[in-house]
Write a structure and sequence with these properties.
Blueprint lengths: L1 H9 L4 H17 L18 E9 L2 E4 L8 H4 L24 H4 L3 E5 L2 E6 L9 E6 L23 H12 L2 E6 L32 H15 L14 E6 L1 H12 L6 E5 L7 H7 L9 E5 L4 H16 L4 E6 L8 H6 L5 H13 L22 H8 L13 H10 L9 H14 L1
Helix pairs in contact: 2-9
């Protein structure tokens, strides 16, 4: 973001152009796989950790709550640290996730016409409520959302992704995750905000099917075959929701442009869209309204927070029902990693990691991270060097494949997928379906 700030100081841009530049920079950042910041990618029900700001439509009149300026990092850390929620374990090392790995072992890996997908139906006896399609972030894939099992031998099971899957399944939703076409390099999604042609809205990438076509193909195959499709009877129709984070969030925001009327709601994490998104959609003369849209973001990323603010304003003024959740930094506790990263991290290891970071002054007095875990500070390897020096080198520590790395990113709340808002997300999306 320093590059963007420098450019902004040298060139006076109009607000629309400035926001457009922000979008392009954000997408460029998550696509630069060779840079140190390439690892942008990105537990439950923690109300006090997420500040919710809702906007919607009532009696045909659009309304949007007034939001204050974006808080500074110091302001975000003020106040008493909130305790873990009961669902996440409370004061015990056992969370819903740590007790539910057997359920998640039902994820099924498939290659559908050369497209990598993992999916799972809700547990037997659970009333089916619909389908949730999930789009991963850069440097990730569909295999992140389930643990390794006989039915998904390639799965790697990252904690936040698995938590999202688990909560959707327990609510009665089938979950379908698809990997982007790019399986080397950045592994980001193609989006309408950076297509293959001169028009930034152009999805044309040549003769090969583009990402949205691949997603549509997977859904066209899976939903009817597994009897997950919305019923042909309007009174029995099941909703199809799209959820995406970072690059996946940008991809999800573009789906109504190419699959109008297919989506009952969108949930976009740590990403926004360019100015004119709704105007572009309506210029295509789509008969279906733009779906209700939720944004989950981390105000510590102030440039992205401003972009989300602009998206909320445009959609709200256009009569689209919207919702916003702001995710704040959280403190590390001795039990936190056992609650999130079990069975890989047990209680003893969780306490050892906490003690090592605390002794190295990586945490402040309340347990908040002093440094961005994506940075190499302190010199010599950052937090990874601290853990190795403490004899914890046997853990998965590599970026984008490490449960601990992901959870530290979430605690810092700069740019990471979060599952803490999943219950709120499903509550809100279901409310929108009921109001239609």
């Amino acid at each position: 973001m320093q590059l963007f700030d420098k450019c902004r100081s040298q060139v006076r841009l109009s607000k629309p152009r400035l926001l457009a530049a922000t979008v392009l920079l954000l997408l460029l950042t998550v696509n630069l796989g060779s840079l140190a910041l390439k690892r942008f990618r990105p537990v439950f029900d923690i109300q006090s950790h997420a500040v919710k700001t809702a906007s919607g439509r009532s009696s045909g009149v659009s309304r949007r709550s007034v939001r204050s300026r974006v808080a500074s990092s110091d302001e975000l850390l003020r106040g008493d640290p909130a305790p873990n929620s009961p669902a996440a374990g409370g004061n015990t090392p056992h969370s819903i996730l740590s007790k539910s790995m057997e359920l998640l072992s039902g994820g099924k890996y498939e290659d559908i016409d050369g497209i990598e997908a993992v999916w799972q139906a809700p547990p037997a006896g659970t009333p089916r409520r619909g389908v949730v399609f999930i789009a991963h972030g850069c440097n990730h894939g569909a295999i992140d959302f389930w643990p390794r099992s006989s039915s998904c031998p390639k799965c790697i099971g990252l904690p936040e992704e698995m938590n999202v899957t688990l909560h959707c399944l327990l609510r009665g939703y089938a979950v379908v995750a698809v990997s982007s076409a790019a399986r080397e390099g950045s592994r980001c999604w193609q989006s309408p905000f950076g297509g293959g042609g001169g028009d930034p809205w152009d999805y044309n990438q040549g003769s090969a099917p583009v990402d949205w076509m691949r997603v549509r193909r997977v859904l066209d195959v899976l939903l009817p075959r597994e009897q997950l499709s919305p019923s042909s009877s309007p009174s029995l129709a099941l909703p199809l929701f799209a959820v995406g984070a970072s690059s996946g969030g940008a991809f999800v925001l573009g789906l109504p442009l190419v699959m109008p009327g297919a989506w009952a709601g969108l949930a976009v994490q740590i990403m926004g869209g360019p100015p004119g998104l709704l105007r572009r959609y309506r210029s295509l003369n789509q008969s279906a309204p733009w779906p209700p849209t939720m944004f989950v973001h981390m105000p510590r990323d102030q440039n992205l927070a401003q972009l989300v603010e602009a998206n909320l304003e445009e959609l709200g003024e256009g009569g689209v029902r919207t919702h916003e959740i702001r995710v704040r930094p959280q403190p590390l506790t001795p039990l936190y990693l056992a609650q999130r990263c079990a069975p890989e991290v047990d209680e003893r290891t969780s306490r050892a990691v906490y003690d090592a970071l605390k002794s190295a002054d990586y945490l402040d007095a309340r347990g908040f991270l002093r440094h961005n875990p994506r940075s190499p500070y302190p010199p010599g390897g950052g937090w990874r060097a601290i853990l190795r020096a403490a004899g914890l080198e046997g853990l998965r520590l590599q970026p984008d494949a490490s449960p601990i790395s992901e959870e530290l990113n979430l605690l810092y709340a700069g740019h990471e997928l979060t599952s803490e808002t999943t219950t709120d997300m499903l509550d809100w999306l279901e409310q929108q379906v009921q109001q239609q």
